[in-house]
Structures are given as structure tokens and as C-alpha cells.
Amino acid sequence: MNSNSTKRLREANNTNSSADRHDSKRSKGGLGVEIHPFLKSIVPIPQLPKDFNPLSKSASNAIDSTKSNPYLDSSTPQASRRTRKGAFEFNHSGKYVEIANQIREQEAAKSEQLRKHKILASKGLVPNDDLGESLYSQECPADDTVEWWDAYYVNGDKYRCTEQPENIILDNEEAPVSLYIQHPVFLKAAYEKHMPVQQPLYLTKKEMKRKRKIERQEKLKAQQERVKKGLEPPPPPKVKLSNIMSVLTNEAIKDPTAVEKRVKKEVEARFNKHIQQNEERRLTKEQSHQKLHERREHDLSKGYFRAVYKIQTLVDPQHFFKIDKNAQQLELKGVCIAYNKMSLVVVEGGSKSLKYYDKLITRRIDWTKSNRSDVDLSENRATKVWEGQIKDLQFQKWSVLKPRDDTDLTSMLSRFSLQNYWREALLV
Fold first, then answer.
1. Where does this polypeptide localize (predicted)?
2. For residue 298, is it within any domain?
3. Which one, of 107, 128, 125, lies nearest residue 116 by Cα?
4. 337 in the same domain as 260
5. Domain limits for position 349
6. Is this structure's pTM higher than 0.85?
């Protein structure tokens, strides 16, 4: 073999090896992916001629998509190709009117169905999906006889009559179930009576002053916000004789006498307004009495207290007037037995009223002074015999009694059950 033939064999081998490498690269991806062996057994591979041109129209009509595409499911219906006609297509008269009428009928049916559903929902006849009422059986039992618990709500003896809404009764007054709800009476627990009452928080003088200052600042800030929003006009400047030049500079320079006169009028008007507001806030005589009465009733609701006093000699009119008048003003209940040998005062009421009355008898009244010269009160004094809390009030009002003799005194003491207090007072 010569050298030329050897070269031609080497070139042919190189060409074949490069073609094999090119084919192996194409088979790794893209359109050169081989069909899976499982698909080869199911879908037949189409056999195309060598001179087949897929771009020609005849080829596109001849190719069966189910045979050329192994991944296409033959059971899926193919969309038919729409052929476009060159001629005009005219709609017949009344076509869209019929379509509109059909749409209107559908909307009317939907609205009627919705209206019936709302009526049933208002009566509570719509099943609740959350409770699973839609799964309840609507079939009538074999007997079809209305049970006794449904007899009040069904106008008939059979359940089949409930198919008509007029046979369902929902407002029967004799029915055990109605639209009325009976709310039980709220009762407090027994232990709540013995629980300690929460005491209010008492502020010191400094804290009260600070609280009032904060409230004034908040009120002023709210007023300024309203002025900024235009809800109310801005207040006039508060001009005084001390700040005329800083507030009304130009006007004070032009005519100081007129400005001073106007400022004095404004100051007087503000003062009169302040006095008027105080008078409006001041309580009337009846309101003051009512306020004091409410305070004493509140004090009396906290507990009943009683105090017994012994007065050596009660002959001075001023002493007698102070004892009687203060007991009436403090709304105390009890009795004052004024006897020539010894006087006994028994009062009942709230703790604050009794505290005030105790100071009156033991501190404020000077029992040794008198306007009468025929009576010696140098050794006269008042002594507290007993004081404490009681369960109930024994007296209904305040009264003053003056017995004539010992027999009358004994009857008065027995009437109010004060014999023990009298004996105790004699020993003090």
C-alpha cells in the first residue's frame, strides 16, 4: 500500500469519528432526545418518506397529530378549526331582545329566590351550616304523624302538610317555645357581703393643687385646638393696667387716656362676670340643706352609734337651747330628760354627727357660766356615761322631756328602757 492510500484512509477515519461525536452531542438534548422505551411500546413511531417537507401545506394536512406527536393523548377532543367565510352574516330580527328577556327572567328568578331565602332566614327556617343542620334528613317518617312536640307548630295531623308555608305556625301563644327570653334575676354571692370595701384614694393638698392645675391646662389646650380649627372665635386679649404698653402699644401711645378708660371697663366686666359665675354656682338654701341631709344619711348608713351624757344642772336657757338646736340640726335621734336633780341626754346617729355633738357638750359649752344670778353653777359639769355602736336605732326622733316628779321620771325611763343608763349616771 502506497503513501497516498494511507492518507486517504486516515482522513476517512477522522471524518467518521467527528460525525460520531457530532451525533452524540445532538442526542444529549433538544430535539435529539430519544423517546422513552415505555412510550415506544404504546405509541407507534410514524414512518415518513425521505423527500418529506414538513413546511408544505400538503404535508401539514397529511400529518396526523396523534401519530406524529407521541406525547398527545388521543382521547382528548381536538378543537375544530374555524373556517372564516368571506360573506356577511346578518342577525335575525329580535335576537338580542330574546337574549335580554332571558337574562331578565334569570335575574327575576334569582331575586325571587333570594327574597324567599331572606323570609325563611328571618323566621329561623334556614339550616345552619356551622351546626350541620343542612345534613338533617328532610324525609317524612313512615308513620308521617305529627309528634306531640311539633303539634303546636303544624296546622294538620301529617308532616306532609308542612310543604306549604301557610301550614307552619310560628306565633302560637300556647307553644312551649316562643320569641320571649326570660332573664334570671342577678343575685350577688353571699361572700360579697363580707368582702372589704375598697377605700377611695385621698389626695393631699399638694396633689389636689397639682390635679387642678393639670385639668386647667387640658381645658385651655382643648380651647386652643377649637380656636385653631375655627370652631369658636379667639378670646379677646386680657388687658390690664400693668400690661397696656405691651399689648396695646400703638393705641396706648396715640390716646392713653381713652385706652386706660377702656381697660378699666374691661377689668370691671371680667370681675363682674367672675362674681356672677360664683353666684350661679352657689347652692341655694334648700340645696344646701339637701346636701347636708344626704351627707348625714350616708354617714348613718355606715353604722348606728349611741352616746349617753349626764348633766349635773340644766337650768340655763342658753345651755338648753344649744343642746336642743344642735341635735335637731345634726338630725340626731334620742331624748333629753331635764330633771331638777340631774339631766340625762341620750343621742343616736352617725359617727360624724355624734363626734360633733360630743365636742359641743364636752368642750364648747362652758357649764359653769350662766346669765341667771339666782343659780350657782360653779360646780356644774357634763360627763359622758357611755358611748358605742348599736345594732338598731331605738328612737324615731329627737324629743325633750321634763318630768314633774319621781313617778313621772320612772315612767319615762321605763317607756324608753333607760333605767340602766340612769343608774349608771348616778354612780358617775
1. Nucleus
2. no
3. 125
4. no
5. 303-427
6. no
